Structure prediction request, 295 residues.
Amino acid sequence: LCSLSERLKQLLELGSLCNDKQRLCDGLDARVKRLEEEIERNESCIAGLEEKAAALSDTPVLLQQSENERENALKAARELSQLERDINDAKSCISQHEEAAKDYLAADNESRGRKQEYERLDDIFRCEQAGILALGLAEGSPCPVCGSTTHPRPASLSSEVSIPTETELKDAKSSYEKAKALADERLKAAQSLKGKAAGLRNSALSAAKRLLGDDCGWENAAALAKGRTSELDEQIRRLDEGIKALEQKLTQSRRLTADIAAKQAELDAQIEIFMANERNRRIHTSARPHIDRKS
Prediction:
């Protein structure tokens, strides 16, 4: 009877142990299944993130290309802006030369007029001087000018011409010399501006042909430069918008990369936990038949 009671007690203990094992195995099964589902969700999430990241993988290259294109457009715009300034400088210098040429012609005309007036007065003065000398000539006496002792046709004073004084003659000569000096000065200024204008024009035209094509001429260079500048401004505006969008995509790509790394770390940890639980589940599952045989 005692032996039977002890045997019953053992059976009850084994039954309780078997139930505990069963609950433990059931708990491990549920945990393993839950981990499998979480791993599957994480793998699916990572796959989705990687797909999005793949769609943005060319963003750095596209951004670099757009930035290079923008830099080239800005460089071209700066060169065209300089070209427009050079054209304006050349045109301004050409206008200055034209004005200087007009000033020279006016001064030259004035100089010629002053010269003619001085020479006219000088001729009159000289002629009248000859008439004054002739008054003192006597037959047989030498002429103070030519030395002749005979004077068949001595000069006579004119009564119809206003005879200039020495002071008036000097003033006329001084006036002519000043006018001549001014004309010479303005000639040099005009020649200097002519050379400068030609240099600026040739330099600007050379730059225009390089930037706008060989068909570009001086007459249409400014208009072509202005039109091309407007095109570049629009291109730069579009590139700025594109670069801003690409920068946002690049930020999104980097965020996706960080999210993938975080999810991958989470997945690795889940797999490690899953493997540990799977080992425990197998150990406890393999121990159940032994307990059942005992019972």
The chain has four helices and no strands. Confidence is low (pLDDT under 50) at residues 289-295.
